[in-house]
Write a structure and sequence with these properties.
Strand content: over 45%
Number of helices: 1
Radius of gyration: 18 Å
Shape: globular
Number of domains: 1
Distance between the termini: 39 Å
Oligomer: single chain
Structural class: mainly beta
Number of strands: 15
Helix content: under 10%
Order of helices and strands: EEEEEEEEEEEEEEEH
C-alpha cells in the first residue's frame, strides 16, 4: 500500500502518497517477537512502516494543508476484543537526523492464567540499523509511566536503550477506543501530540551509538478507567470521547 485516501466529508479529507517507504526489515518476526505467536492475547502490536515521505494534502475544517515532504510512520494493532487494564505507547520522528524513528509499546498482558508486564522499544538509527529491545525474560524494559511522563530503560544483550518523554496533561486529548460488538467508542487513553522525547542508544559496554531529541512525539497512557476519570475531571460525561484539552 503506497496511497491513503480518507473522506469524512468536505471538511475532513486526507489524500497522500507514500514515497521511499522504510519497511520493517525483519521478515521472520514482528516487533513483539515471540508474543506474535501466543494465541488469544487481547492486543498485538507491530510497527510495519518506520519511515518514508508523504506527498499530498489534508483538509481540516476550512484549511488545506500541504503534506509534501512530511515524514511517515504506520503500525498495526490487532487482537481479540478488549484492551489491557493499563498500557503505554509512544512514537517519534522529527529528530535532527531525519532517518531516525522511535516507537515503543507496553502494557499488562494476559493469556489464560498468565499475567505479566511487557514493553518493547524499537529504534531505527539514522544509518538504517534497527535496534529492538524488550525480551521479557532476558532483557525486560523497566517502565515508569504517568499521565505526563514516560521513562523507559532496557539493558539488552547488545544495546542499552533509554527513552524519556514528557507532555503536560492539560495539553492532552482523551482518545477513544472501539468496542466493536457494541458498535461504539469509549474513552480509552490520555493522548499527547507534540510532546517531547529524548532517546539514547548505547552499545553494551558504554559507547553512545546515537542520541536524539524530538519535540514532535506522540505519547499515550492507556486504560479505560483512567480515561473516563480524566473525562469526568474535565466536566464531561463518562463516555464522552471528544473532551477538549484544558485551557
Amino acid at each position: 500500500m503506497d496511497e491513503v485516501h480518507l473522506d469524512l466529508g468536505p471538511d475532513a479529507r486526507l489524500d497522500i502518497r507514500v514515497n521511499n517507504p522504510v519497511s520493517w526489515p525483519r521478515r521472520a518476526y514482528g516487533a513483539s517477537g515471540l508474543f506474535h505467536f501466543v494465541p488469544a492475547l487481547n492486543q498485538y502490536w507491530h510497527p510495519w512502516l518506520l519511515g518514508g515521505r508523504a506527498s499530498g494534502t489534508a483538509t481540516v475544517g476550512d484549511e488545506t494543508w500541504d503534506l509534501d515532504g512530511a515524514q511517515v510512520y504506520a503500525e498495526k494493532n490487532w487482537g481479540r476484543e478488549g484492551f489491557p487494564e493499563s498500557w503505554w505507547w509512544g512514537q517519534a520522528q522529527g529528530f535532527a537526523e531525519p532517518g531516525a524513528c522511535v516507537a515503543f509499546a507496553g502494557g499488562i498482558v494476559r493469556a489464560g492464567l498468565l499475567k505479566t508486564e511487557v514493553t518493547v522499544i524499537v529504534v531505527l538509527l539514522p544509518d538504517g540499523r534497527l535496534v529492538r529491545v524488550g525480551d521479557p525474560l532476558i532483557s525486560p524494559v523497566r517502565a515508569r509511566v504517568t499521565d505526563e511522563s514516560w521513562s523507559l530503560h532496557c539493558a539488552g544483550r547488545r544495546y542499552s536503550v533509554r527513552v524519556e518523554g514528557f507532555g503536560r496533561l492539560g495539553d492532552a486529548h482523551v482518545l477513544p477506543v472501539p468496542i466493536p460488538s457494541q458498535r461504539r467508542n469509549v474513552p480509552g487513553a490520555i493522548e499527547h501530540l507534540g510532546a517531547r522525547m529524548t532517546v539514547e542508544v548505547r552499545r553494551r559496554g558504554g559507547k553512545v551509538v546515537w542520541a536524539g531529541e524530538s519535540a514532535l512525539a506522540a505519547l499515550e497512557h492507556g486504560g479505560i478507567a483512567r480515561a473516563r476519570a480524566e473525562v469526568l475531571r474535565r466536566g464531561g460525561l463518562p463516555d464522552d470521547t471528544d473532551a477538549p484539552p484544558l485551557p
